[in-house]
Predict the structure.
Amino acid sequence: MEEQIRQILAETLDIDPEEITPEKRLIADLGLTSFDLADVVLQAQEEFGVTLPSSFWGEIVTVADVYRVVGEAVNQ
């Protein structure tokens, strides 16, 4: 799952997946915009066949947060 999320982020940001590590902050470190985040959410929902909760937006700061929230949705 983490590899797929990293790939989605890398494609969205047009960067090398190796630059995406769990501690990276999406906005401050990787330059993700709110539009990029919406795209990532849509792609993750499609990839994993889940619906992410609306609280997702307030919980996401780092790449690890994305892994956690998507993982929780997948395991429900």
In short: The mean pLDDT is 90.
